[in-house]
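Hi all, posting the design record for the shared folder.

TITLE: backbone redesign
STEP: 1 of 1
STRUCTURE INPUT:
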């Protein structure tokens, strides 16, 4: 589909990631023929319009090779079977950066932790060449499609906050000793939102152990 002079994939990125996960989970990075892939993804034939559109959108995000039979790219592997969270996030940003309009929005707003402004239509007008009235009409559609495609991308400042609390993949428990209950709750909430459940659990267990030691009755000395 087009928004002015900018092209945007018809299929949203989270759905495409699920398709890549299915293909890579069965075949890895091997080259697969269209008929096999189309059946794997639930299409009756590789000649179906829906399948061809899905392939075009996978290529738009750089998740499969740009031509020939289907082969998952390294980027496709990173967003489906990453070695760590950073690799996954890097792959997601690389993917949306392939879409020119999404890259413009991401670089100007999302990357800096900024919300899209009320006069966002002026950006659309500038970036897509649409006249003002048409640009205003495209605001809601653009917002909806963009936010669906960046659904799994976490704000950089949140990742930085999380990494500053980690030491070698584990929570830096020395940070917890001087924090109050409100700060501890904020930290746990931030870790959970970031998907760092194991680290959040480790932090909670540490706090419980520390509080338990405080409550232990002192043994009487004879």
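Okay, here is what came back for every position:
SEQUENCE:
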């Amino acid at each position: 589909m087009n928004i002015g002079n900018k092209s945007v994939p018809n299929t949203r990125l989270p759905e495409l990631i699920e398709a890549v996960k299915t293909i890579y989970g069965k075949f890895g990075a091997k080259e697969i023929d269209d008929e096999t892939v189309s059946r794997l993804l639930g299409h009756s034939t590789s000649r179906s319009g829906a399948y061809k559109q899905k392939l075009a959108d996978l290529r738009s995000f750089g998740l499969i090779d740009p031509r020939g039979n289907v082969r998952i790219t390294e980027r496709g592997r990173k967003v489906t079977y990453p070695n760590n969270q950073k690799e996954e996030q890097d792959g997601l940003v690389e993917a949306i950066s392939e879409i020119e309009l999404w890259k413009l929005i991401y670089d100007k707003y999302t990357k800096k932790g900024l919300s899209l402004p009320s006069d966002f239509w002026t950006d659309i007008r500038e970036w897509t060449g649409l006249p003002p009235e048409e640009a205003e009409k495209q605001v809601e559609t653009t917002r909806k499609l963009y936010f669906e495609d960046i659904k799994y991308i976490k704000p950089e400042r949140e990742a930085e906050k999380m990494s500053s609390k980690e030491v070698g993949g584990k929570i830096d428990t020395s940070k917890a000793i001087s924090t109050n209950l409100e700060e501890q709750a904020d930290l746990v909430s931030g870790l959970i939102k970031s998907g760092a459940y194991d680290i959040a659990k480790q932090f909670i267990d540490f706090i419980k152990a520390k509080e338990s030691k405080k409550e232990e009755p002192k043994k009487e000395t004879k």
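COMMENT: Confidence is low (pLDDT under 50) at residues 159-179.
Let me know if anyone wants the other runs.
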